[in-house]
Amino acid sequence: MGLPINRWYVVASTDEIGAEPLARQVCGKRVVLFRDADGDIVCLDDRCSHRGFPLSAGRVVDGQIQCNYHGLRFDNCGRCTWAPGQDRIPSRANIVAHTTAVQGPWVWLWVGDLTAPDPGLLPRFPWLDDPDWAVVHGMEPLAARYGLLVDNLLDLSHETFLHAGFIGTPEVAETPITTEVDEDAGVIRVSRHMEAAECPPFYSESTGLQSPIDRWQDIEYHAPGNYLLHIRVAPHGQDPADDDNGKAAYVKVLYGITPSTESTTLDFWAVCRNFAIDDDEVSAFMAKMNREVVLQDVEALDQLEVYLAEQEAAGVTPVEVSFKIDTGGLAGRRMVEAMS
Amino acid sequence: MGLPINRWYVVASTDEIGAEPLARQVCGKRVVLFRDADGDIVCLDDRCSHRGFPLSAGRVVDGQIQCNYHGLRFDNCGRCTWAPGQDRIPSRANIVAHTTAVQGPWVWLWVGDLTAPDPGLLPRFPWLDDPDWAVVHGMEPLAARYGLLVDNLLDLSHETFLHAGFIGTPEVAETPITTEVDEDAGVIRVSRHMEAAECPPFYSESTGLQSPIDRWQDIEYHAPGNYLLHIRVAPHGQDPADDDNGKAAYVKVLYGITPSTESTTLDFWAVCRNFAIDDDEVSAFMAKMNREVVLQDVEALDQLEVYLAEQEAAGVTPVEVSFKIDTGGLAGRRMVEAMS
Amino acid sequence: MGLPINRWYVVASTDEIGAEPLARQVCGKRVVLFRDADGDIVCLDDRCSHRGFPLSAGRVVDGQIQCNYHGLRFDNCGRCTWAPGQDRIPSRANIVAHTTAVQGPWVWLWVGDLTAPDPGLLPRFPWLDDPDWAVVHGMEPLAARYGLLVDNLLDLSHETFLHAGFIGTPEVAETPITTEVDEDAGVIRVSRHMEAAECPPFYSESTGLQSPIDRWQDIEYHAPGNYLLHIRVAPHGQDPADDDNGKAAYVKVLYGITPSTESTTLDFWAVCRNFAIDDDEVSAFMAKMNREVVLQDVEALDQLEVYLAEQEAAGVTPVEVSFKIDTGGLAGRRMVEAMS
């Protein structure tokens, strides 16, 4: 099938990259991340040029990574600076350095043509480093192909069942949606505006709002890997024009959907809010609860992957029945396929 | 190789099917079992028609099964009765309902042509629901192809070695057998009548009989999946015509040999007895001991499967040497092959 | 790729072969080892001729191995001496007996043409049974192809990094080597003589020598599976001609590199010393420390195997860069390939 390359994918959060090398796999490519002597993030192929040993099993010495097998060292450009018994080191011992970009807590990796990282394709997630917003974030690995996570996030009707008691209420599955597909921009928008809805624990406990509320879910999916859910929760009937003075709360739930291999995925998530931004208890609550929600998805999608892989191994193409709610998901699949 | 279809296979025991859905795999087919509002057993494909999610990961609501992903519901005929955001549900959202049949504690599933379940092929195991007989039963999964269990059960000489101290005594391996193969009926009979034999713990502790005993083993194998071992144990020399007034004990050991996948098997077993039928201690003893015997088979056959699979992966056809004791087993393999 | 056959490989140590059967796999061949009634070592195919059950799951009865499934017995020549229900046992029920050779604690197995075990190919490791030398030994299984262990042992520059604090010091990676390749004899010699070097714990604690020392490493590799490291450690500047009267210590580190399957290896090691030969504390120290060193190799090579297998599965031929230190290793690969 192939995975979409010449794209940016979230590869790590900045706080994961410290004194020890960090191994990651993105679109099948194994990379190692560490910091050079200036504290800048370095991302190299995770394979020593000598005998192929994983550099991530080594250590960082003076801002260079040292292979733990025969001690070869590589600098922040991937240049080999030392090899045993060699005075002169041939340039073919150098390894590939990859381009990364940082936005708030997230580090994106350019995957594809090394000479042409395209800054225009980087997503704009300004809330990640806006002092007026508080951010909690995390990552969970999925033993499932990333397309299943795209499907999952483009059809939130599943919140009612899979995430009941967290973010799901009956209204999510019941309220009609609108879907817009912008093929040229590679963006899909799915919106669901719930009126006089039940306030689920995720919002009642963090904002203090009580049922009934008006709850808006406006999805923006930038294929293949960037996902943004604009949320507005407010007392039922409040005029959105009064939000600045009222009790409305805005939340941005961001996902970095990163294919690790053909059948595994890194599920990066961040929850940004514009209220109680200095309240550590609210931060801890939202981080814990969103992680539990993500883990519910992980469990479900991992199960689904087992079933799908089994059918593929048997040469069976599973038949699916699609409904109106699937319009966005199906459009997402088409976009991703065109990129792959 | 293929597995024999258009047959009934034991899929579960009735007491396994309750408030929670039960997942099973038979001949590679994944099904979910639950009870409808009347308490009747329902068996559906374990795959939601929408996105393929396992229904067995969901729950039973008002006698229907509800998918835990997007909440689709299916009734006892497999009809989809609810889907998110849909007023009208297309009939192609319905899923397959399978035919089952109950006999005592066992539930058989018809595997094959859905329109033609053949009641004539159902085994007759009357002791399973005869009030004059007591039944204990269980199931153990095997990580081995079902043919290995057929081999195992058709040559009981292995009791002497694998089941020593349980049901095996030296006489089992030493006593000659007679074998009858009825190709037309698809039945194999292997008989071994031991005279003045040692009474193994399984029978001495349950019946009170002391060595020496006369011990008969009369196997009836109905290919591919139904196996019946008629056992008579009696004081040595007792005239079988006097069994009704004497101390003879009759036991029927039944096996439902159910291929789960090409290389895994569900080993359903039941032990029926016509003595001490209200004695719970005897029931508990026989259940515990037979389970241990089954687990000894499981361990051995799982080991054998590893060896066989390894040779197959290497493209080697293992050479076997067969003896007189293998007549029944070899006939069983031929019958099964003709059905596959 | 194939593994080199018509060779001797270390299959076990004598103290592993006792009352219980021992299962081993060499070059993909599964064998079982036990002792006959005279205490002599027997090595048979680990597969009952009847139904293929692993004999190693059985037990030794009167110096014969008895299958735990149907009780077949095989003597020290592989002759089947008993089968259930058989008076006459056909000779085709016999199984293969393999030729072994013992030298000190190690048992070598001839793998290949059963009719032509070549004693001339047996390695000469006289220190293994010389009363003037003390021997400690062990075996660790590798989840890595044996060629990786050959690479590893022919380039000891890795000691500095992988075995720092045990046997590695900076001088090992820094000191130039000389390499001799004797294609006709199938022997590779790699030598490194370090002058005024740091004495690593492995030698300082066992010999009492203090830094600086002169430390010689003279490798002899007899492709494919026999490896010998001649070590001399002595106070810096001591004339080797005075070694007999001085404080020089000689150590022979032997490896039996045994391919188990295409991707797994048995790493037999022995450390022979000519000092403190009756000192159990020194023996315990050297055994413990060398095992830790071997486990460091195991961990590294197992990691490397994962990376290599992944690339092979993806159809990628990994590019390697070789240096002067790799001369011996590359020659070793060529020799092994010519034998495979």
What does this structure look like?
The structure is a homotrimer of 340-residue chains. The N and C termini of chain A lie close together (7 Å). The first copy, chain A, is of the alpha+beta class. Chain A contains 6 helices and 17 strands. Chain A has helices at 146-154, 159-162, 170-174, 201-207, 280-313, 327-339; strands at 7-13, 22-26, 29-35, 41-45, 59-61, 64-66, 73-74, 80-82, 100-103, 106-111, 134-142, 178-182, 187-197, 213-222, 226-235, 249-261, 264-273. The first copy, chain A, folds into 2 domains: 7-121, Rieske Iron-sulfur Protein (3-layer Sandwich), CATH 2.102.10.10; 126-339, Naphthalene 1,2-dioxygenase Alpha Subunit, Chain A, domain 1 (Alpha-Beta Complex), CATH 3.90.380.10. In chain A, the strands form 4 sheets. In chain A, strands 11-17-16-15-14-13-12 form a 7-stranded antiparallel β-sheet, covered by helices on one side. In chain A, strands 5-6-7-8 form a 4-stranded antiparallel β-sheet, with no helix packed on it. At the A-B interface, helix 2 and helix 5 of A face loops of B.
